[in-house]
Amino acid sequence: MASFTKQAIKRSFMKLLDEQPLSKISVRDIVEDCGINRNSFYYHYQDIPSLLCEVITEEAEQIIEKYPTPDSIESCIEACIEFLLSHKKAALHVFNSGNKDFYEQTLDRLCTKLIASYFDKLFGELPIDRSDRELIIRITSAEYFGVLIKWMMHGMSDNIMDDFHRICELRRGTVEEMLKRAMNK
Description:
- By secondary structure, the protein is mainly α.
- Helices cover 78% and strands 0% of the residues.
- It folds into two domains: 1-45, Homeodomain-like (Arc Repressor Mutant, subunit A); 52-183.
- It contains ten helices and no strands.
- The radius of gyration is 19 Å and the shape is elongated.
């Protein structure tokens, strides 16, 4: 039963977050929407920020599970973009809230994890120094994280996929060059 209640709380929270800014959502709004009492909410969550933290963390983990060994950098970032677009209003409400730092940290971790999964597969047994591997992952992750954050700062325009694919096209070969240079160190 507890699992059902937690899921109901999360669904109501996401529904409300799609409708209004985070700062306007109260525990009362959530419990009224899902038909439970306040004590049930507080049994599962300390407050709304702890609920938000769990929702974002779970969503990030689901994306990572869905793409454990991505085939390309594009598929890594497409997964992030698809998730954000499917929850566009909620994502913007959180992004523009006081919890922006947590949201950015989670998005950064998600980008890094997805990019690292791709590079782990790509690197395989290549003779590349561990520090170079980590640096390549950090650089690439930071680039795409920056693209996502800038996109969110400008209201998440719908043409992000076109822009993103063009960025990937323009960057094509860059990773291979980095790998060559790392192997020739």
